[in-house]
Amino acid sequence: MNASPEMSIPHMETDVLVIGYGFAGAVAAITAHDCGAKVVIVEKMPRAGGNSCYSAGNFGVVRPRASAAFAQYLDRLNLGMTPYDVFEAYAQGSEQLEKWFSALGGELVPRISALANTFPGVVEGPAFPKIAPSRKMFDIRIAKGPAELPPALRMWDFLSRNVSKRGIEIQLSCRARELTRAADGAIVGAVVEHNGQLRRISANRAVVLTCGGFENAPELLNNFVASKPIMFAGSPGNTGDGVKMAQLVGADLWHMAQTATLIGYKAAEYDAAFCIFFRAPGFIYVDKYGERYIDETAIELHDFDRVFSHFDPVNIEYPRIPSWAIFNERTLKAGPLTWSIAGYNRDKYQWSADNQAEIDRGWIVKAATLDLLAERLGLRSETLKHTFYTYNTACETGKDSVFDREPTSLELLRPPYYAIPLHPVMVNTQGGPKRDARARVIDPNNNPIPRLYAAGELGSIWGPLYDGAGNLTECLVFGRIAGQNASGETPYDS
Q1: How would residue 5 be classed by pLDDT, with cut points 50, 70 and 90?
Q2: In this structure, are strands 11-19 and 39-42 parallel, antiparallel, or unpaired?
Q3: Domains in the chain, please, with CATH?
Q4: What is the mean pLDDT of residues 442-447?
Q5: Residue 326, C-beta contacts closer than 8 angstroms, at least 6 positions apart
Q6: How many Cα neighbours within 13 Å face the side chain of 326?
Q7: For a tag on the chain, would you pick the N or C end, based on fewer CB atoms within 10 A?
Q8: CA angle 395, 401, 402 (to 5 degrees)
Q9: What phi, psi does 366 have (nearest 5°)?
């Protein structure tokens, strides 16, 4: 849509328009304001915070003088799918985060608990330590804040207070419909919809897209994401708006097949899924035929899309969707199977500490024998018994000859047996408009689209492999970069 003085819809002006009000949008707005720009934020949901508020709230701070090594590590993970200078900007920006927080009156503290001590298979430090030059390149941090708030909401409390005290205008339930372009191709604002009414917002300097991914855009998921079906754990507002708006003004896309995907349980009563974690090692995964297919403790926490995307072209199916997690009494009693501090269901349902309420609801299946378990799961009893025999033999001998699971993680599965169906569950998508190290949105010829920037989950920097806590780090780092560069544009002279 070209900007036109003949448009009859209401009109307002600002210097920088930020579309999307999660962590990246808040940081971009704060930074642009502090650089001297007038800023307006529009958010399509009635509640601010975006997908960020449903995260675990962890982000990485690169240690002093480690940014070069960290950028090299990330470059190896992404197999050339992200330009090296983008990772350099990310690493250098992460190294500056503690100083930035302090300047805004905040404080960062170590992550509340070590996941490695809570959930088997979760590593501390770099997610892929075999190729990392050091396990101590970065520290995981959360924002200090009210103790009653989970980490993500502590961060949101800090960021939203900083936005508020600057008097930055925020318009909720206001959906950006289309970016507006001048005759020379520069992005000069957007058309938004509020209460069914359209309005133009002119941005005299730039527009920053921070409106999240496409976890709830079925057509985009079907076209780009391998696992089918795939569930979501975060905000239902992530419907790919930014992807479509950027495409319409000529943006290139990247990383569209990449997701940060965990495992989870989808209850019929809830739109979002519950992410599932096992706090003791007495569990295995079996496919829809009752067979193990992987070392269950060696999967990187966010890499389950790759695991579940295995496709059988003979039977035309994804045999691992759904999978069944089968576990023993000790694992059942080790604690709730979900993580109560994160996910869209966090405020909607309190998972029981002993998992008994979920057994009573029928979410978790209980059986006294393998024959009864197989019947209740719809599996062939002979196959399931063979799977158990092979696995329990590995536990007794201390050697998993099939999948080479670590001996210390092998724990016998004895009755009573428990099981829960598992799907791939997205924390977020990574794809969207391609951006450069200055957070400028790029066209297919690798040229920046004038006055258009992006940050956060929309068009994330992550390619084939994702390093844990990196998405929130990216929100903060590229939110700052986008806000600074957007505010630095000279006022547009039409």
Answers
A1: very low
A2: parallel
A3: 11-258+430-487 (3.50.50.60), 260-426 (3.90.700.10)
A4: 98
A5: 283, 284, 285, 286, 373, 413, 417, 418, 419
A6: 30
A7: C
A8: 105
A9: -120, 140
Q: Could you report the per-residue pLDDT of 256-266, keeping only the tens digit for each?
A: 999 999 999 99
Q: Are 152 and 53 in contact (CB under 8 A)?
A: yes
The secondary structure of the chain, three-state, reads: CECCCCCCCCEEEEEEEEECCCHHHHHHHHHHHHCCCCEEEECCCCCCCCHHHHCCCCEEEECCCCHHHHHHHHHHHCCCCCCHHHHHHHHHHHHCHHHHHHHCCCCEEECCCCHHHCCCCCCCCCCCHHHCCCCCCEEEEEECCCCCCCHHHHHHHHHHHHHHHCCCEEECCEEEEEEEECCCCCEEEEEEEECCEEEEEEEEEEEEECCCCCCCCHHHHHHHCCCCCCEECCCCCCCCHHHHHHHHCCCCEECCCCEEEEEEECCCCCCCCEEECCCCCCEEEECCCCCCCCCCCCCCCCEHHHHHCCCECCCCECCCCCEEEEECHHHHHCCCCECCCCCHHHHCCCCCCCCHHHHHCCCCEEECCHHHHHHHHCCCHHHHHHHHHHHHHHHHHCCCCCCCCCHHHCCCCCCCEEEEEEEEEEEEECCEECECCCCEEECCCCCEEEEEEECCCCCCCCCCCCCCCHHHHHHHHHHHHHHHHHHCCCCCCC
Q: Structure pTM?
A: 0.95
CA distance linking residue 74 with residue 80, whole number of Å: 10
Residue with tokens 């990310």, as numbered in its chain:
90
Query: Which residue, 304, 296, 300, 339, is CA-closest to 467?
Result: 300
Grade residue 6 by pLDDT with cuts at 50, 70 and 90.
very low
Distance, CA of 263 to CA of 261 (rounded, Å) = 7
The residues, any chain, with a CB within 8 Å of residue 7's CB and separated by 6 or more, are 200
Contact in structure between 281 and 120 (CB atoms under 8 Å): yes
